[in-house]
């Protein structure tokens, strides 16, 4: 894989028939949002959903850009953080979108990270049974993962993302210059999902990342390349399996353990953010695969070393504070939506870039594995 | 059209690819629900949503029937009436379905009329981004209309059905013996939607109804026939235009005026129920078409006479109590979701069974028409 020397902007097309859309990746897209939207959507009204961290930095620029191109926009700024992904906030967003008289061809615009994207996308999917939806992801995590593929949702007291719809965006604008304002911790958390695409089925990309990760962190063409490869990987999986009946589940590599750890830490971002949970979860998935004699323990070591090198947590003891017991973690896993007919579905691996869906993992194996890891 | 003399049960298949499903129509289906479900769905758990009018009559029989076939079912009984179609009740239903650990292959079962079907279907569409859904409609209205086609939703303070998803059922069981317990007023209200299928594009069916409506009201094979023809008509439209981009809008014949009247009477069922609004709305749509020189006034008269004969209200002055002015009704119409880019979309007609979608109706014409009708 080589970094290309032409114009830094990249376009990934997601060919989903009448739900097809473009992902644009590059610097300075925020200022051009109006033009990119008017060239693709019929409506000339927009409701922007954002949060109080992002709004002071980018909302005005976006509003100005939209106005220049004749789009009448209103905005709603919500509290930042995972707790905003609630049914109550969904009601607030829907009410605001309806009050703005957004019609089917008008757009809801998500300006923010995964929380805002998932929440605004859910609202866009249910207002008038679906209005247009534009993602302007402002975190690395959302640029490479949640903004692509149409999964939307909120959390419930029963678990994460348990309520939602599939609602594809009509356009994704991944402005890479926005990422310069991310904290190093946020950038690293997003990077865990970038590495995931290598681990799923692209060993060459993982190797490229092992060599080039510092340039990805510094910015420049390697960053755009890494994001474009990630979006393309995700788009390929989504096109093959839009509604997650099979292959799309691979994207959950590291997520079953990760979600359980997020639940166990009460979604407290001081202790653990999503990407960090995924980083630990990916190492656990490789270790668990090794324990089941599916993969070499060396691969788990290699994953751990790379994620550690970039500064990510890689084991449960890296999480500050007390963790609950293995049985509580297992219960969180059982309530996760990837359980079918009582049996556990896990993404396991035969080695770097050789992940697969296993839908018959005995819960007893998971329990003893977790007990062992927690005891260390 | 002749009534067939074979087994009274009818099956209408809705061929929607991987979302295809059957509608069974006939007496005694409630008791057989378990067998019909287990022969079609993989899951063996169900969450029944019903209301306090229907529960005392049919919930126990359904629970018993499901248990016999090995389906573990829990139930939630909500208040009866349009006010139950709210976002708050949606939250309650979703929480109950999640607490019951309903997984993707398990079912949410709607046992009730359109309110319960729309609410439970919405929940089934968003829990885990979609679980299985079985409709057991207990009113004539829901048997011939809302239980088929996958439109789900709740009302908002901004208007009716403004929040929802398209989520097709996996099975519809229209037990015609249940209809014997409906009040005459409820049966008549549902009958308005039956007549609608004739008025949309089936003049022979409308003529058959003019001759046979009394037998439909009495029960027997004519009732099953009328329901089957209605379901088949609706299925045909839905298959052609699942997500209401064009032709499906025809199903809204009478509904634009009807919804405005429902809003104007605050959804107070003592004054007006949905089918009655549709009856008045269909007469208004025919009269408005005549006023625009699209159809003969004789057709409007014929529609009015038939609906009056069965005992339905046919004009705004038939609604007890005060109605708001024409401008308030127009405003309700403008907020209806069938407004695109500010222009009014109406279902108009060139005569009995010759409806069409008009998407450029000037609001000034609607206003003066409403003023004239209200003055009478």
Give your account of this protein's structure.
Chain A has 13 helices and 12 strands. Chain A has 376 residues and is of the alpha/beta class. The first copy, chain A, has 2 domains: 171 residues, Rossmann fold, CATH 3.40.50; 192 residues, Up-down Bundle (Dehydroquinate synthase-like, alpha domain), CATH 1.20.1090.10. Chain A has a 7-stranded mixed sheet with strand order 1-2-9-6-5-3-4, with helices on both faces. At the A-B interface, helix 3, strand 8 and strand 10 of A face helix 3, strand 8 and strand 10 of B. Chains A, B: Belongs to the sugar phosphate cyclases superfamily. Dehydroquinate synthase family. Chains A, B: Pathway: Metabolic intermediate biosynthesis; chorismate biosynthesis; chorismate from D-erythrose 4-phosphate and phosphoenolpyruvate: step 2/7. Chains A, B: Its EC number is 4.2.3.4.
Order of strands, widest sheet of chain A: 1-2-9-6-5-3-4
Gross morphology of chain A is globular
Mean pLDDT score of chain A, rounded? 93
Name of the CATH class of the largest domain in chain A = Mainly Alpha
CATH level 4 superfamily of the largest domain in chain A: Dehydroquinate synthase-like - alpha domain
* Share of residues in helices of chain A: 40-55%
**Multimeric state:** homodimer
Q: Sheet with the most strands of chain A?
A: 7 strands, mixed
| Gross CATH architecture of the largest domain in chain A | Up-down Bundle
- CATH fold-type name of the largest domain in chain A: Dehydroquinate synthase-like, alpha domain
Query: N- to C-terminal separation of chain A?
Result: 39 Å
Q: Which two chains share the most extensive interface?
A: A-B, 36 and 36 residues
> Structural class, judged by helices and strands of chain A?
alpha/beta
Number of domains of chain A: 2
Strand content range of chain A: 15-25%
Helical segment count of chain A: 13
């Amino acid at each position: 894989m080589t970094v290309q020397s032409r114009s830094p902007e990249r376009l990934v097309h997601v060919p989903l028939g009448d739900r097809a859309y473009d992902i644009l990746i590059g610097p300075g897209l925020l200022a051009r949002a109006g033009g990119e939207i008017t060239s693709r959507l019929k409506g000339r009204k927009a409701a922007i959903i954002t949060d109080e961290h992002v709004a002071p930095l980018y909302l005005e620029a976006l509003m100005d850009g939209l106005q220049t191109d004749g789009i009448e926009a209103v905005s709603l700024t919500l509290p930042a953080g995972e707790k905003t992904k609630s049914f109550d906030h969904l009601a607030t967003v829907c009410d605001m979108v309806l009050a703005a008289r957004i019609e089917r061809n008008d757009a809801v615009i998500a300006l923010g990270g995964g929380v805002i994207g998932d929440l605004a996308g859910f609202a866009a999917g249910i207002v008038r049974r679906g209005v247009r939806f534009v993602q302007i992801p402002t975190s690395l995590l959302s640029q490479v993962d949640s903004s692509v593929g149409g999964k939307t949702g909120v959390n419930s007291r029963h678990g994460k993302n348990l309520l939602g719809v599939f609602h594809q965006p009509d356009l994704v604008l991944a402005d890479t210059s926005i990422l310069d304002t991310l904290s190093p911790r946020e950038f690293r958390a997003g990077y865990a999902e970038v590495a995931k695409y290598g681990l799923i089925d692209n060993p060459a990309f993982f190797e490229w990342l092992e060599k080039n990760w510092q340039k990805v962190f510094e910015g420049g063409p390697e960053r755009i390349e890494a994001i474009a490869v990630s979006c393309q990987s995700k788009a390929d999986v989504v096109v093959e399996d839009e509604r997650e009946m099979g292959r799309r589940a691979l994207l959950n590599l590291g997520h079953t353990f990760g979600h359980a750890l997020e639940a166990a830490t009460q979604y407290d971002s001081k202790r653990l953010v999503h990407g960090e949970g995924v980083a630990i979860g990916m190492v656990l998935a490789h270790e668990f695969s090794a324990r089941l004699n599916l993969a070499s323990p060396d691969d788990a070591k290699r994953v751990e070393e790379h994620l550690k090198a970039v500064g990510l947590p890689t084991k449960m003891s890296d999480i500050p504070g007390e963790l609950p017991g293995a049985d509580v973690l297992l219960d969180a896993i059982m309530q996760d939506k990837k359980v079918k007919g009582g049996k556990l579905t896990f993404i396991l691996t035969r080695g770097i870039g050789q992940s697969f869906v296993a839908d018959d993992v005995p819960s007893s194996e998971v329990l003893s594995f977790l007990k062992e890891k927690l005891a260390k």
